[in-house]
Write a structure and sequence with these properties.
This is Trehalose-phosphate synthase. This protein has 478 residues and is α/β, with parallel strands linked by helices. The protein has 16 helices and 18 strands. 44% of the residues lie in helices and 20% in strands. The longest helix has 21 residues, at 114-134. The structure holds adenosine-5'-diphosphate-glucose.
């Protein structure tokens, strides 16, 4: 059904993301309150949103009616309501049961259900309608991530005057995988409703351009993608972190003292290996544990002198595949500890909790080896945080070549996480590197991050969108 065009509102800048940038929390007096969520996206966009008094449209995180729009920390927040069925179908279903695994190389089997697809359409339409209502004429709208891939197309129909950008935080798969998706044309048309489509990695951008030509017959040139009478630009914008803030944490005496304390608490081993991931099957936690276990068994790492700290952040706990993964990981951790730990000395410290930024920074400072070995990852900010935290150039990063970050952090010990022997070699080599070798690798990576922080990412994308839409005036605006 065609969407009817609607008159607009007053915001010049609007961000749409599945979640609002605030979490429900409890204040000092035990009363419920809202707190800015710790995510990188919020940190990146907060200054710009504040300056331009922008609006953020997103789900508030609970099923049921949405609270009225409110202002938090200078940003106008417009909550979207989701029913329980929509949380099942749109969020846990189509977004995290279909698209998430499919876009991550189908490392778990994607599930396809028509009722999930219907709810995904309905919720995407609700987001698009909400944006159409509050956007000023010619406003800039930035849509984020795989939950909202139909929104650019829907919004374009409702409000042809808007300048629409879309950024995908996760990988964009090759043609033969993408084409499994029953909604494949619909999703491609949805994305091509944007003026600018951004990806983390050049390969994702190439996949998208190929699909636009193969699936929809779009004309793809160096200049852009010509489809449905409009030009669409597709390009790579690797996301980053707040490097200055990470460095501030790294130099904070309290954080440094905590790092020393963590080392003591772990029994002052020679080597601390650290891994920090959401407990997700894409993160390669099981392969990493297998590699570590074999390194201990072969005494390439000394069980009496080595500790692995595996932080596994709770995530998507309602979904079966995540519950099954958690059980497998916890079994592997117990097995390794059963075999190699001593009384008062663990081989794997497994922490299924969330941490604040300072505690995380202290862990980064305490770790000799950081193992970031996802099977597939859009970018991976943990790798960048580790590098930025090591202001003295020590430390060793083992990085999967299947993380987007591998395109930038070239000096890391890059590994193929599916190749257990290669993974073992990477971890063992990193553990043995002397300080000169560590610095030879860390210094250029840290310099790269200083020149490519998250502010550059955000202003780079928005600046490009601004310029594009001026160069290509739309008929409605002409
Ligand atoms: P994620 O898959 O969530 O993000 P990642 O990029 O590693 O993965 O970001 C995780 C963030 O959570 C990091 O900033 C990290 O510091 C933080 N964090 C980790 N452990 C924590 C803990 N215990 N407590 C609190 N915070 C913790 C998706 C994509 C990635 C992409 C990002 C951004 O899957 O590939 O890099 O979006 O685009």
């Amino acid at each position: 059904t065609a969407l009817t065009q609607v008159p607009g509102g007053t915001y010049d800048l609007i961000v749409l993301a599945n979640r609002l940038p605030v979490d429900h929390a409890v204040d000092e007096n035990g009363r419920p309150c809202r707190r800015r969520s710790p995510g990188g996206l919020v940190t990146a966009l907060h200054p710009i949103m504040k300056r331009r008094s922008g609006a953020w449209i997103g789900w508030h995180g609970r099923p049921g009616p949405a609270p009225a729009p409110f202002v938090h920390d200078g940003i106008h927040l417009h909550p979207i309501a989701l029913t329980g069925d929509e949380v099942d179908g749109y969020y846990e279903g189509q977004s995290n049961g279909t698209i998430w695994p499919l876009y991550h190389d189908a490392v778990e089997q994607p599930q396809f259900h028509r009722v999930w697809q219907d709810r995904y359409r309905a919720v995407n339409r609700r987001f698009a309608e909400a944006a159409a209502r509050v956007a000023a004429p010619g406003a800039l709208v930035w849509v984020h991530d795989y939950h909202l891939q139909l929104v650019p197309g829907m919004l374009r129909e409702l409000r042809p005057d808007l300048r629409i950008g879309f950024f995908l935080h996760i990988p964009f798969p090759p043609v033969e995988l993408f084409c499994q998706m029953p909604m494949r044309e619909e999703i491609m048309r949805g994305l091509l409703g944007a003026d600018l489509v951004g990806f983390q990695h050049p390969q994702a951008t190439r996949n998208f351009r190929t699909l636009a030509a193969d699936l929809l017959g779009a004309k793809v040139t160096d200049r852009g993608i010509w489809y449905d009478g409009r030009d669409v630009a597709a390009d790579t914008f690797p996301i980053s972190i707040d490097v200055a803030e990470q460095q501030r944490l790294a130099l904070d005496p309290a954080v440094r003292a905590r790092a020393a304390e963590i080392r003591r608490e772990l029994g002052d081993p020679r080597t601390i290996v650290l891994a920090v991931d959401r407990l997700d099957y894409t993160k390669g936690i099981e392969c990493r544990l297998r590699a570590y276990e074999e390194l201990l068994s072969e005494r390439r790492l000394d069980p009496a002198q080595t500790v692995l700290v595996q932080v596994a952040v709770p995530t998507r706990q309602q979904i079966d595949q995540y519950q099954a993964l958690r059980e497998r990981v916890e079994r592997a951790v117990s097995r390794i500890n059963g075999e190699y730990a001593g009384i008062g000395r663990l081989s794997v410290h497994y922490v299924h909790q969330s941490f604040d930024r300072a505690e995380l920074a202290a862990l980064y400072l305490a770790a000799d080896v950081m193992a970031v070995t996802p099977l597939r990852d859009g970018m991976n900010l943990v790798a960048k945080e580790y590098v930025a935290t090591r202001t003295d150039g020590t430390g060793a990063l083992v990085l999967s070549e299947f993380a987007g970050a591998a395109a930038e952090l070239e000096e890391a010990w890059q590994v193929n996480p599916h190749d257990i022997d290669g993974l073992k070699d990477g971890i063992a080599d990193a553990a043995e590197a002397d300080v000169a070798e560590q610095r030879r690798r860390m210094d250029p990576m840290r310099a790269h991050l200083h020149a490519h922080d998250v502010n550059r990412w955000a202003t780079g994308f928005m600046g490009r969108l601004d310029r594009l839409s001026r160069r290509w005036p739309r008929s409605a605006a002409a």
